[in-house]
Structures are given as structure tokens and as C-alpha cells.
Amino acid sequence: MPEQTKTLPANRRPDGTTTMRGAEIVVRALEREGVEVVFAYPGGASMEIHQYLTASPIRTILPRHEQGGAFSAAGYARVTGKAGVCMATSGPGATNLVTSIADAYMDSVPLVAITGQVPQKLIGKNAFQETDIIGITRPVVKHSFLVLDVNDIARVIAEAFHIATTGRPGPVVIDLPKDVQQQSCVPEFVDQPRPRAYKLPGQVPAQAVADLRAAIEKCERPCLYVGGGIMIAEAAGELLQFAESYNIPVVTSLMGVGAFPERHPLALKWPGMHGNYYANYTINECDLLIGIGVRYDDRVTGNVATFATGATIVHVDIDPSEINKNKHADIAAVCDAKAFLQAMLPNPIRKDYTAWHEQIRQWKAAHPLRVPESDQIQPQFVISELDRLTDGEATIVTGVGQHQMWSAQFYRFRRPRQLLTSGGLGTMGFGLPSAIGAKIARPEEEVVLIDGDGSFQMNIQELGTVHCEDVPIKMIIMNNQHLGMVAQWEDRFYNGVRGNTVLSSSHAKKPYPDFVKIAEGYQVKGRHVWTKDELEDAIKEMLASTEPFLLDIHVIYQEHVLPMIPAGGTHRDIMTE
After folding, report:
1. What is the pLDDT of residues 449-466, one digit of tens each?
2. What are phi and psi of 442, to 5 degrees?
3. How would you label 459-479 residue by residue, b for 16+ Cβ within 10 Å and e otherwise?
4. N or C: lower Cβ tally within 10 Å for the chain?
5. Residue 14: pLDDT band by 50, 70, 90 thresholds?
6. Mean pLDDT of the residues in the chain
7. Cα within 13 Å of Cα(241), Cβ side
8. Measured between alpha carbons, how far is 476 from 491 in angstroms, rounded to an integer?
9. Measuring CA to CA, which residue among 488, 559, 259, 529 is closest to residue 385?
10. pLDDT band at 506, cuts 50/70/90?
11. Does domain 379-554 have CATH number 1.10.10.60?
């Protein structure tokens, strides 16, 4: 225990109660919430809390950048469903969290972000390292607290976790001025928080259940469209039972990947701009579209006016603001996805849908996802080999770019929370720190990061966290020396003109930078892969390692992510070559 912590003992009063400093109340409240790990970068306005963390059973992970810490906390949350916790000091420490907070907001990830703040008397005076983090983050949080009274700390933390993890999850910011951290009181810890004006959705609406059953009785071409809400509600078992008992094919959103096992005969993977041909045709040509735990977002619908025009639209979501926001719902239910599915399970309406299933089979046969034939290393081949060599059991974390789409296309996911990816915000730099958080949360699982050379460099400094915290993640870099997704658009829509999308150096004779040497500088093992013949052995070496391991795989940059629906197009405009 550091000497400073020893000089700040709790004070016992004559009536037997104990006074605590605000900073200690923070740590004790986190312990009461069952927090196992905090991703925290110290600074002048938060160091008081760090001192008490040194004497806590909570594991404190020191990231190399506050954004990395927040993404790690979000990775922990995505793989467990529990709230991830990150912490930073005031000013630049707090602002460095903003991108990760926005990412969590877009993907409904439970995150509690604690920020230090300058003393109250300096707030609003442009003091050293002062920023209005409450104002800055207000559009991208579920709720936020500026704590001005030490007596409120215990209650605020309990409410923050309750808000972050219930209903539609999301990030909550707690801003703590330094003088509040230093003040003392007798804390009143809260076991059952009741935030004001915070209500959760009620029972499953019986009318919506009846209306959906009636629609199923009449339909001939039904389709289930499910998203991340299935994972949040822990409803994968009910979804599987519903799909099988009603004999309805299933497409998922990108955030819903893993909610339904992709090797199942009813599984069609995912639709959208880079979704597969048969998922796009199924979701658009159906006559009953049952959306559960999805947003009907633009990456799936494209032009919403031309999306699923012949279908009765069903929308089940726990957030009332999502209903009719993007696509008008003919049948709507604001409730928990699991409860809704449970209400539909008794007396299933099972029909053969012979013609519909045959049509889907023909679409699959005509346009399957294929690995292109080539003597060079194709990114799709890398993912297929990883799927084969891990038997589809690894937890996959991606950055953002072409590799993200190929990972979701060619790895066949078996279970919920197996794919961790930045969906709504599409944040480059997400991958490495999120993989750290996932592995810390699930040390028994094989966690493999699949990243691009552009995305990986945005938080490459977290290799230091990987080494110092002994986090044995496996890392694959699809190194094509380009910002591949933007370069693909340049090829297709801008006559191949490169608008600052080339990452290689004109001075270097080899691909730049040398990621294996960089990894070695952080004392992380690595290996280059230059040819297709080397790939299997390299992946096996990586998977066999008990330590962190990085593969720098040199792939061709000319490859495009296909299928692709151009912006503003419909499923009938899908490009397959």
C-alpha cells in the first residue's frame, strides 16, 4: 500500500460510523457493484482515486492512451454484458475518452466513464486542464452526472451502473471535481437505486403478439431480422427455438452476428451494403419482416423508401424512440426481446414455406460467398483459414475497414458476443484495445484481433498494455499499405484517383512500417507472412503460443469487399464482381 494511502485512514466516529474521503467512496462503491477491473489513466484531477485503488481488490489496468482504456472497458463490456469502467483525469484526459464513449452509445454498450474535474471554485474559469466534459458528451451518453456534493457519490455511482446496464444499455459519465474527492462524509451506500424520471418498459403488449401471430398465419415469405438486442436480452436460446418451431429464415444485423448460429440451415448471415446476396434478397423480397432488437439502420436498409416495400414490417425494441424512427412499423412492441420471444413460443405456427425456402436455396447457390482463386494471399482466404483452424470457436475482434467486413463474411460464428466490432460509429482504432478488454474478461477464450494496417496504427501504443499486463491476445494485421475501404470507393466511383489513401512510404523498399519490429520493441512476438504457402503454419504458430503474438500478413490491396450495394441503391443494384 502506498505511503500516501496509509496517511489517509478512514475516521471512526463515536457513534460507530466511519467517515470516508470522496475518492475512497468511489472505490468502495465500485467494489459494491462487483467491478473486477478498471481501465484508468491517472492525472492531477483523478490521482486521489488511484491512491485508493492501490488498496482495492479491483484490478487497475494502465492503458497507454485514454481512448485505448475506454475501448478496453467497452471490449470487456461487449464480451460479458456487464458494465465496463474507465477513468481519466480532467481536460485532455476526459476529451480523449469521447470517441470511445460515442462508440459505446451507438452500439448500446454499458460503460461507466469516471472523469476527474478541476475544483468547484475553478469550474467555468478556463482553469488548467478544465473542460466541460458533461457538455461535450451530452449528445452521446445515456446519462451524465456532475457531482458537487461528497454525500452524493455513493448514490450517483449506484444509479450510473443501474442506468448503464438496464433497458437499452449505454454509456454514463460521472464527473468528479477534485475538491469533492478530497472532502469527507459518512457514506450511505445504495443497494436498490431508483433514478428519478427513469422508467423501464413494461409487459409484452398482448395485442402485438396477437397481431404478429395473425400476420404469420397469412404470410408466405417470412424473414426474421435480429440485432444486438438479442444479445443484450440474452435471448439467443429463445430466438433459436422460435426460428426452428416457426420454420422462419434468419438474417442478423452486423451487431447481431452470433445471435443465431451461422452453420444452422435457417441462417442467412447478414444483409446491407456489404452483406451477402441471398440475405439482401431475402430481407427485401419477404412479405413479413420480423425485426427484433434492431434499429432498421441505414447500413441495412439503404434508401428506406425502397427497402422491403412488399413486407408487413414488425419492430420489437426496448427503446421506444427507435419505433418508426427509420422505417414505419405495421406491428410494434416496446418491450424486452426475450420476453417477446417467450410470449410467441407457445403453440408455434409452423408452415412449410416450400416455395420460399427453395427460392432462398437458389439465391444461395447462384451467389455464395466465395474466396477468390489466386496464388497471392487473399484476405478472404486468411479469414477462412482462421475459421477452419479454430473450428469457428475463437472470439473475433476487428478494427474498421475492409478486414472488418471480410471477418464478418467468412468467419462462421457460433454464439452470442463472439464478434466484437464497431458497428454504428465505425471507429478505426477500436480493435487492439477492445481485444485487450475482451481477453481480460475472458482469459479462457482464444481472442483473435483481425485488423488493417491503417486501423491498427490508430491505437498501436496499446501493445505496451498487452506486454505489461500479460494479455495473450493474438493479432492478425491485413497489411495492404492502403486505407482499403476508401481506396475501394476510389476505384469504383472516382476513377481510381488516390486521395491520400496510400499508407506506404515512397522512401521504403519494403512495406512500411515493419509491424513485427514494432511489436518486438514492445517485447511482443511477431512474424511476417509473405506467401500463401506460409499462412497455415503461421496461424498455427500464433494459436499455439501462450503469449501475445502478432502476424503481419501482406495481402494484395486491389481486392474489393463484395457484394456491395452502392449508396442510394437497392438490393437489385448489388455488385457481385
Report:
1. 999 999 999 999 999 999
2. -130, 70
3. bbbbbbbbbebebebbbbbbb
4. C
5. low
6. 95
7. 14
8. 25
9. 529
10. confident
11. no
Whether 379-554 and 3-185 are alike in CATH topology: the answer is yes
Residue carrying the nine cell digits 412479405: 287
Which pLDDT score is estimated for 400? 98
Q: Are 529 and 244 in contact (CB under 8 A)?
A: no
Q: Quick check: 563 and 277 in contact, CB under 8 A? A: yes
Is 515 labeled as catalytic in the residue annotation?
no
Question: Does residue 72 contact residue 465 with C-beta atoms inside 8 Å?
Answer: yes
Catalytic residue among 20, 87, 231, 485: 485
What's the Cα-to-Cα distance from 106 to each of 295, 443, 459, 527, 568, rounded to whole Å? Answer: 11, 27, 20, 35, 22
Q: Which fold has domain 3-185?
A: Rossmann fold (3.40.50)
What letter represents residue 84's amino acid?
G
Q: Which of 120, 129, 241, 359 does the annotation list as catalytic?
A: 129
Active-site annotation holds for 344: no
In total, the chain counts a number of residues equal to 577
Integer angstrom CA distances of residue 494 from 140, 484, 497, 499: 33, 14, 6, 9
pLDDT value for 379: 96
Active-site residue 121, yes or no?
A: no
67 is a catalytic site residue:
no
| 192 φ/ψ angles, rounded to the nearest 5 degrees | -130, 80
The span from the CA of 476 to the CA of 92, in Å, is 31
Q: Residue 406, CB half-sphere, CA atoms under 13 Å: how many?
A: 28
Query: Is 178 designated active site?
Result: yes
CA-CA distance, 388 to 575, in Å (whole number)?
27
Question: How many CB atoms neighbour CB 109 within 10 A?
Answer: 29
Residue type, position 303, single letter: N
Which one is catalytic: 31, 128, 189, 541? Answer: 128
pLDDT at 12 (0 to 100): 59
Q: CA-to-CA distance for 91 and 45, rounded, in angstroms?
A: 9
Domain 206-366: give its CATH architecture. Answer: 3-Layer(aba) Sandwich (3.40)
Edge-first strand order for the sheet with 419-420 is 419-420, 395-398, 447-452, 474-479, 549-554, 525-529
8 Å CB contact between 457 and 481: no
DSSP assigned state of 10: P
Q: Pick the catalytic residue: 178, 327, 338, 439?
A: 178
Domain ranges of the chain: 3-185, 206-366, 379-554
